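Good morning,

Both structures are done.
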Amino acid sequence: MSKKEPVIVVVDKITYRFDGSQRITVVNYSEFSSIDFIPPATFFVQNAVGHYVFIHTARRNVAQEWVDKEYGRGRYTVKASKLQKGKELGENSRPAYGTATRRGQKK
């Protein structure tokens, strides 16, 4: 069985790559630092060349596994370009401003 070569497309200084199972977008520093840049994916790493490699996935661990496989384990840590939705923290995640007690309620 032969290994498939990745498909690479370059559009306006942005490189799109699909290597069989994972879609990747590579953006150079000048494009990334422009004021109207919108991140194409949530997770990214900045490689040694200075390019930003965006991994199109919804899960951080999948992105980190791809980076470890591509660059070597422990070389890069995946960063998030957008705020992530967190899990709710008990009691419907409402803040507790105080509790009702009997202290101070005596007549």
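Second structure follows.
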Amino acid sequence: MGASDGVVWFSASYGRINTVVVLSETEKTVTVLHAGEKKARRQAKRSEFSNYFPTFEEAKSFLIEVAERNVASIRLQLERANGALGNAKGLRDPTLIAARETK
């Protein structure tokens, strides 16, 4: 099987886009021939590891959306961490507070 037996698609994962040859497609899977491999494999179009798209723009949009969600999540974590830091810095020794109140 050569590249002429299929259609070029794009595999997006971990911030990268690679070209693959898709030999067949169903609603949820593609049969893919990766560069340098001789045997085709059936892959889910969407998975945790890799996602397959018929156009480069779709693959790029997918990676941008994933990266934007990651940035938003990390910003929220940073806000929470800064709040915890502020709370920790604002802590006062309760024994000193109680000693002042009894005077």
